[in-house]
Amino acid sequence: MPSISTLGIGSGLDLNGLLSNIEKAESGSLTAITTQQASYKTKLSAFGSLKSALDGFQSAAAALGKASLFGTVTATSSSTGTLAASADTTAVSGSYTINVTQLAQAQSLVSAGQASATGAIGGGTITLELGRTDGGVFTPGSAGATQISLGAGSSLADIRDAINQANAGVTASIVNDGSGTPYRLAIASNSTGAGATLRIGVSDNGDIDSAALAAVVAYDPAGTRAMTQTLAGLDAMLSINGIEVSSGSNTVTGAAQGVTLNLQATGTSNVAVKSDTSTIGNAIQSFVAAYNRLQGTMANLTAYDPNSRSGSPLLGDGTTRAIQSQVRAALNAVQPVAGSNAPSTLMDIGIGFQPDGTLSLDSKKLSDALGGNLTGVQQLFSGADGKSGFGNQIAGMVGGMTGYKGILTNAKDGIDATLRSLQDQYDASSARIDATMATYRSQFAQLDLLMSQMNSTSSYLTQQFNAMNASGGK
Predict the structure, then answer these.
(1) What is the predicted pLDDT for the residue at 62?
(2) What is the DSSP letter of 395?
(3) What are the φ and ψ backbone dihedral angles of 347, each rounded to 5 degrees?
(4) Low-confidence residues of the chain, pLDDT below 50?
(5) What secondary structure letter does DSSP report for 113?
(6) Which helix (H) or strand (E) holds 190?
(7) What interhelical angle do 407-472 and 389-402 show, nearest 10?
């Protein structure tokens, strides 16, 4: 059967336009579905914004729920040029007068001058030991001795490199003093203190005579000293509230409980150790700010615009109302306290609700509470056990809302399920429309072909009649 390549050519009818109108009418059901999908996707996005605000509020509450926050202390030095001070959670509040009379110092030795840094000197075995020297008597430390073997004819540079490669707790270098024999080997302890002084022994290495090597590097506090001590190994000396203290390092830890002192120079400094109420106050301010962001998010997502007569995605949403109600009730709760003057509500430390639903913070009232009853403020947020209080209660409640099978999670899961159902409906409707249009297209093609054939027959018959009429008239 002949076919029509372009629909409507055979019949002269606007069959394509007719098909387009039919398809547009059939697709009306798809438009309704896509409108619903857009609405649910907007609501799902709104729930995402709400969850983000809830997560921020939960984090701020959880920070206040940690008892360690309220145990932080600060240490300040009145003379940072003399010493810097820091404190850990074991420090107790107090004041210390510290007089630094001597800084810890690392021992340094230097050899006699040599004409060349690379000229041959000698060989043998160097034995390096770190220990304590008192009154010229050397007592070896627990690290033990390090032995370094040097071949015959080793130079000053070879000696330096071999010592540094041995990792013996010292550093060797070559100093040029500008004299006629300028090259001198310098050996310095890597650690400060009288307990990190050096003894350097030199012995024969097999058949190598070590005398020349010993004449350069040997150093025995109680014997031969080929090297000269330019700096003595010294302990830091200080007094804390009149109590004498010594330290092998300029970083003094534990002399005052929980306090670390970094000594900079000799002199006197007063160190004050006190609770870090500034950090605690900032954490409470962050908590208030996080709630206000949450409240602002919920207000925006549930707003109604009378001018456009349109509402935000979560206007009238039951899940949002429930979350708002539960959070507000938790903030108004009364905490069990120990002591008649301990704060039991947020209002007791200056946190209260404003008419628009946000929280306000009275900085002076908070400062007074932190300064007057820090333990009470701690229990208000973290509980006497470190597991209750506003911080832990609110963090747990919000975590339950946003976690597995939580009220917000269930709402989002419900929307996801609805979107999947709508997509299934869309796919089914689209397939039905495609099938319907295929049927119409086939029927229109047949109509077009039939009309074409009828038009051809009509044209043929007209020609025949015209020919017969013309013949009969002659």
Answers:
(1) 96
(2) H
(3) -65, -30
(4) 1-5, 10
(5) P
(6) none
(7) 30
List the structure tokens of 43.
């609501």
pLDDT at 11: 54
Whether 286 contacts 366, CB under 8 Å? no
| Bridge-based pairing state of the strands 259-263 and 120-134 | unpaired
Q: Residue 261: which of 284, 240, 288 has the closest Cα?
A: 240
CATH class of 108-231: alpha beta
Q: How many CB atoms lie within 10 A of CB 464?
A: 10
Work out the burial of residue 284: count CB atoms within 10 Å of its CB; fewer than 13 is exposed, 13-18 middle, 19 or more buried: buried
User: Rounded to whole angstroms, what are the CA distances from 289 to 127, 213, 374?
Assistant: 65, 72, 21
For the chain, the distance separating the N- and C-terminal CA atoms, rounded to the nearest angstrom, is 41
pLDDT tens by residue, 26-55: 767 788 888 888 888 999 999 999 999 999
Work out whether strand 243-247 and strand 120-134 pair parallel, antiparallel, or are unpaired. Answer: unpaired
Q: Helix (H, G, I), strand (E, B), or coil: what is residue 327?
A: helix
Copy the structure tokens of residue 201.
Answer: 């022994």
Half-sphere exposure of 107 (CA within 13 A, CB side): 26
Residue 300 in tokens: 């925006």
Residue owning tokens 């002659």 = 474
Type of residue found at 223: G
Q: What percentage of the chain's residues is helix, strand, coil (to nearest 5)? A: 45, 25, 30
Q: Which two tokens stand for residue 98?
A: 């510290």
Structure-block tokens of residue 14: 């606007």
Look at residues 124, 46, 109 and name the one whose alpha carbon lies nearest to residue 314.
46
Q: How far apart are CA 120 and CA 405, in angstroms?
A: 82
CA distances in angstroms from 283 to 274, 278, 280, listed in the order given: 18, 9, 5
Distance CA 248, CA 238 (A): 12
For residue 167, report the phi and psi dihedrals to the nearest 5 degrees.
Answer: 50, 55
The per-residue pLDDT for 4 is 44
Residue 429 near residue 29, CB atoms below 8 Å? yes
Task: Please answer whether residues 46 and 383 qualify as being in contact, where contact means their C-beta atoms are separated by less than 8 angstroms.
Answer: no
Angle between helices 407-472 and 318-331 (to 10 degrees): 160
HSE, CB side, 13 Å, CA atoms: give it for residue 384.
8
